[in-house]
Specification:
Length: 246
């Protein structure tokens, strides 16, 4: 009689399934972290590309950062202002439409939508995951009324040469809100304070962390409250202002 077994017993199958389940439980968190890290890297790369367009804009506009938005004037937003440097070549009338005309071009969602941004925009609009840093209080050191502590605000901006801490001043960060879309001049085109940022997305990359683009072109993934200097989450200083040692 041949007693060689050609199949597993039920117990053996259950043991194999249990082992596979344990391995999966060990591997899935690691794979999830790897995917999250990859998305974070893609978003950082997008911000660096945006930085190059901003720097080109400064070269042609007396060293000024693009204003965050010009609502009810030209109705242009900061991404409209740098569109020429992203092969979008829009007319002023097209920029005034408050939305982006194509969603997947190199100057569209392929650049302005972070891979971790899960919000959807209304039909005809394209996602924008980023906003210029405005700061939250009037610039008490400035002689110009209407200047804010950041680099860009509604209807205005400052020059790069006025930034005292070039490597420590943030100029752009992630602000994935349902109302933030390409070409739209609104409060979502600029960031006032980190508490606003967290109220919208809880940190795109986990643990209340977002990517920040700094004036010198480097991108850093940090907790939004980690660099507010002597300020508070509601009135931040540190990287949220153009000052040094605040």
């Amino acid at each position: 009689m041949n007693n060689n077994r050609s199949s597993f017993t039920l117990i053996e199958l259950l043991v194999v399934i249990a082992i596979l389940g344990i391995l999966a439980s060990l591997l899935l968190p690691t794979l999830g972290k790897a995917r999250q890290k990859a998305k974070r890297s893609v978003c950082a790369s997008q911000q660096k590309s945006i930085a190059l367009a901003i720097f080109n804009y400064q070269d042609d506009n007396a060293d000024y950062y693009p204003p965050a938005d010009e609502f009810n004037v030209t109705n242009h937003s900061w991404d409209d202002k740098i569109s020429t440097y992203l092969s979008r070549n829009w007319t002023a009338a097209q920029m005034s439409q408050k939305k982006h005309l194509t969603s997947n071009s190199s100057g569209g969602e392929a650049l302005f939508r972070c891979a971790s941004d899960s919000y959807e925009s209304p039909s005809g609009f394209a996602r924008r995951s980023y906003a210029m840093i405005r700061g939250s209080i009037w610039d008490s050191k400035s002689s110009t009324v209407g200047d804010w502590t950041g680099v860009a605000w509604d209807h205005g901006s400052r020059t790069a040469s006025s930034v005292e801490d070039f490597s420590g001043t943030a100029i752009l960060s992630e602000y994935p809100s349902p109302g933030n879309w390409i070409g739209h001049p609104s409060n979502y085109a600029h960031l006032r304070k980190p508490s606003d940022q967290l109220s919208e997305d809880k940190g795109l990359h986990g643990d209340s962390k977002n990517n920040f683009l700094f004036s010198d072109g480097h991108v850093q993934n940090i907790h939004v409250y980690s660099n507010i200097g002597a300020g508070t989450p509601a009135i931040p200083e540190g990287m949220w202002t153009h000052w040094k040692d605040d």
